[in-house]
Amino acid sequence: EPDVTIMSGLKDMVVFEGDDVTFRCQVSHENARDVEWKLQDVALQNNEMNEISVEKGKVHTLTLRKVTEQDIGTITFRVGPHTSMA
């Protein structure tokens, strides 16, 4: 299986309380396995507040819905041994 690397990393975002925010990270290969999103070192799951998806096979996205002050912190995207933070 090829080593999947991060081609385009996360960007820092500033949003207002109650807004949605989307983070994107592009990887080198489609169908990457061993992918993880975290907020403040807490693994995120796909649910009504967090939408985790893949666009065009290589662009992994995380949308946080209706953010609050508790959502302030570091977002981490990890694929295999590679990470990107914002």
TrEMBL record:
GO terms for cellular component: cytoplasm. It comes from the Eukaryota. Its main location: cytoplasm. InterPro entries: Ig-like_dom, Ig-like_dom_sf, Ig-like_fold, Ig_I-set, Obscurin/Obscurin-like_Reg. Keywords: Cytoplasm, Disulfide bond, Phosphoprotein. The keyword Zinc does not apply. It is found in: Cytoplasm. Transmembrane segments: none annotated. It holds the Pfam family I-set. Residues 2-86 form the Ig-like domain. PANTHER family: OBSCURIN, SI:DKEY-31G6.6. This is OBSCN protein.
